[in-house]
Amino acid sequence: MKVLTLTSTDSYSSGKVVVLTGTCGTVATTVAISPTTYRDSAGSLVSFSSVSRIAFGASANATATTPSEIVRAAGDRVSVTDCTGFTSGTVSIAAASGTATFKLVIYGA
Questions:
Q1: Could you give the strand order of the β-sheet that contains 77-86, starting from the edge strand earlier in sequence?
Q2: What was the pLDDT predicted at 2?
Q3: Each residue's pLDDT tens digit in the chain (109 positions)?
Q4: Could you give the C-alpha distances from 108 to 6, 53, 74, 91, 100, in angstroms and in order?
Q5: How much is the pLDDT for 31?
Q6: pTM for this entry
Q7: Is 42 a member of any domain?
Q8: 8 in a domain, yes or no?
Q9: How many CA atoms, within 13 angstroms, populate the side-chain half-sphere of residue 78?
Q10: Which pLDDT value is given to residue 65?
Q11: For the chain, what is the domain count?
Q12: Region label for 68, one of left (φ > 0), alpha (ψ between -120 and 50) or beta (otherwise)
């Protein structure tokens, strides 16, 4: 057995993160970036001035489409992509067939 270690000195000094979970079908589920309805633990609205990364995982073959990227995931694997700092619009999530459970992580400022 081989043991691998991954070490990184990169860190995020500031930013906001939203974690969404749900179920999608072949008709796209739309997640709004702005205006936002996401709330932090104190109940205050969390809004993004820009989005720089998303991570997307799904139980079955599915896509998350941003204004600048298409991210694919299946088998509960996670795909991460850098975005071009989009400031408005949506992320559309759809399964290739049937349904899929998904997790979407949005990171930005």
A1: 16-24, 100-108, 51-58, 77-86
A2: 60
A3: 566 666 666 666 678 888 899 999 999 999 888 777 788 888 888 888 888 889 999 999 999 998 888 999 999 999 999 887 777 788 999 999 999 999 999 888 8
A4: 24, 7, 24, 14, 25
A5: 87
A6: 0.82
A7: no
A8: no
A9: 8
A10: 92
A11: 1
A12: alpha
- Amino acid at position 55, single letter: A
Domain range for 32 is: 16-36+49-108
Helices and strands, number each (H, E), in the chain: 0, 8
Position 1 scores a pLDDT of: 59
Tell me the torsion sign for CA atoms 70, 21, 77, 54. positive
Q: What is the CATH number of the domain that holds 59?
A: 2.60.120.380
Q: Could you tell me if residue 44 is inside a domain?
A: no
Place of tokens 């057995």: 1
Residues in the chain: 109
For residue 32, tell me if it sits in a domain: yes
Phi-psi region of 59 (alpha: psi -120 to 50; beta: other; left: phi over 0): alpha
